Each structure stands twice: as C-alpha cells, then as structure tokens.
UniProtKB/TrEMBL annotation:
Sequence ranges assigned to domain Fe2OG dioxygenase in this UniProt record: 162-264
Organism: Thraustotheca clavata
Name this polypeptide is given: Fe2OG dioxygenase domain-containing protein
GO MF annotation list: metal ion binding; oxidoreductase activity
Family stated for the protein in its record: Belongs to the iron/ascorbate-dependent oxidoreductase family.
Keywords carried by this UniProt record: Iron, Metal-binding, Oxidoreductase
InterPro entries: DIOX_N, IPNS-like_FE2OG_OXY, IPNS-like_sf, Iron_ascorbate_oxido_reductase, Oxoglu/Fe-dep_dioxygenase_dom
Record has Transmembrane as a keyword: no
Keyword Metal-binding: yes
C-alpha cells in the first residue's frame, strides 16, 4: 500500500484529501510553501537544545500545561502495552493565550523558553515556524471541511479563530525498541484532535496500522506527513479515519521529528457534520467539547500534566 499525496494548493486538493482520509487517514502534503531554511533552522535549534546537559534543559522544564521540556520517558502513549515511557524527550510550544482566555484550562500559562544566553535563536525560530505552520494548518483544516462536504464550516466564529495549536519537537534516543518487552519509541496511538502536520528527519521508524498490519511510512523530501485525528473521525461520523501509528526504533540510531497539532478552539463543540449523517447512517458520536477531549487524553498519557482541581 502506498501513502497518498495531497498537493496543498491544487484545485483538486480537497478531493485528494477526501480520498486519502477515507482510505488511509495519512497522506504526504506537498507544495505547502513552508521555507526549507526555516525547517532546517528548526532542526538546528532542537538538536542543540536536546544536546544540552540535563540541568540546563531543566531550566525550561514543562509547566503544568506541558509547555517546555518533557524529559525522556515522560509520555506513555500506549500504557496498556508499554513497560516504560516512550524512548523520547519532547519540547512543546503553544499559541499565546489572549487575555480573555486565561481562565480556560491549558491557557493559563505562557510559553517556556530556554535561557537566551545559551539558546539565543530558539524562541525566534520556533515562533516563526509556529506562525507559518498555524497558517498552513488553517488552510488544511478548510480543505478538510470542504472534503467532508461542508465547505466554509470552519469559518464560523468559535470554531478555529482561537485554535489550540501545539508545536512539538521530539528527540528519540538510540534505544532499540523491543515490542515483546513493552519498549517502544512512541507507543501506538491515534492523534486526539483534528490534524497533525509532521516533519521528520530521514531516519525510519514511523509506522501506521492498516487492516491489522503495521506499514512503514518512508521519508519523502520536503513533504509533511499529515494525519487526521479522533475529532476528524467524529466530525465525519467515522467516514474519515483516525489511524493508529507508532514509532519503532529498529536502527539503534537517534531520530528527530516535529509534529504540529492543529486543533479547534477549546470551547468548540465537535458534532457530526450534517453532510455525514442520514437516516441510514445515524450519528455514532455524541457532541464533545474539543478542550475536554484534549484534557481527558492528557491525563491518560502525560506524567507531568497536572489537571486543575475540578
Ligand atoms: O515522531 C513521529 O514520527 C510521530 C510522533 C507522533 O505520532 C505524535 O507525537 O503524536
Ligand atoms: Fe501521533
């Protein structure tokens, strides 16, 4: 099976995306316009950060909302099958909250950055990449709505005007995965939200589950690997697939990747699109608030995430 390609600004992009999401839930996004130099700078900055001594990285330790550095093994994406955390460390940068959002969970802290004397370009580079990817994410979200038969649906205020966007830098260590012993780079999971735009280095490891088989996703030059998440599946009443994936280290080498999660507003109610519901195909999922969906997942997988008292 090959993974489909979507040409980001092609007149048929929405049809290409629909085909990819109905059949695989993953595709390569080409023609996206994110400058190569900016992508390269991201890898330079993240590698430099992850190579710092632990006590230096600890100055940017993840806060209660997971902004900042999450050390090796902090996350366990498949708790049922893992005996230790994912063999990776992470760094998260989120959208800056607006003053009237700070009462919301996950929105009440600011981004955490490394000491500028040690990492003078980290904040500027990650912020530039974050902004560029936010534009791209919105474009792909609009393609998604068109592909699902509801063009323009995400223009409605309250849907995507305050998206929950997370830039995530990942460093996998060189540890070989051992599936029998429950040791894995990144445990099998489906993503939780609408869209993930993933950049990787050239190292193999990413696999997706298709018809009970694990299939390698090879590196493709200057293409993002995009997948849709659980909210996309809910919106389309199961027509589009939120496909499980994992990262297995078979090489004994380190690996770097940068997923960018593009999610609706915290208060957006995700409810099956009318175009995906009929008398023969009733709604399979009750409405859910996007923010609550994310909070439920964070509690399950992050050792460092501290939920606010209820
Ligand atoms: O590192 C990768 O290639 C995938 C990471 C991933 O699936 C995730 O962070 O959700
Ligand atoms: Fe994922």
């Amino acid at each position: 099976m090959s993974i489909p390609i979507v040409n980001c600004f092609h007149p048929n992009a929405a049809q290409q995306l629909r085909h990819a999401c109905v059949n695989v839930g993953f595709f390569y996004l080409k023609g996206h316009g994110i400058p190569r130099q900016l992508q390269r700078s991201m890898y330079v900055e993240m590698e430099r950060f992850f190579k710092l001594p632990a006590q230096e990285k600890a100055k940017a330790l993840a806060d209660k909302n997971m902004r900042g550095w999450a050390p090796m093994y902090e996350e366990t994406l498949d708790p049922e099958n893992q005996t230790k955390g994912d063999t990776k460390e992470a760094y998260h940068v989120c959208r800056d909250s607006l003053p009237d959002e700070v009462h919301l969970p996950l929105h009440d802290t600011t981004n955490v950055f490394p000491d500028p004397l040690v990492m003078p370009h980290f904040q500027a580079v990650t912020t530039a990449y974050f902004n560029a990817m936010s534009h791209l994410g919105l474009h792909v979200a609009h393609l998604f709505a068109e592909a699902a038969g509801v063009p323009g649906a995400f223009n409605i205020p309250g849907m995507f005007d305050r998206p929950m966007t997370v830039l995530r830098m990942l460093h996998y260590n060189a540890e070989h995965s051992n599936l029998k012993k429950g040791v894995i780079g990144c445990g099998a999971h489906s993503d939780f939200g609408l869209l993930t735009l993933l950049s990787t280095d050239t190292e193999p490891g990413l696999q997706i589950e298709k018809d009970g088989q694990w299939i390698d996703v090879p590196y493709v030059e200057n293409a993002f690997i995009v997948n849709i998440g659980d909210l996309a599946e809910r919106w389309t009443n199961g027509l589009f697939r939120s496909t499980r994936h994992r990262v297995v280290n078979t090489t004994g080498r380190e690996r770097y990747s940068i997923p960018f999660f593009f999610e609706p507003n915290f208060n957006c109610i995700v409810e099956c699109f009318p175009s995906c519901v009929s008398v023969e195909n009733l709604a399979k999922y009750p409405p859910i608030k996007a923010g609550q969906n994310l909070l439920n997942k964070y509690e399950q997988i992050h050792a460092y995430y501290t939920p606010d008292p209820k």
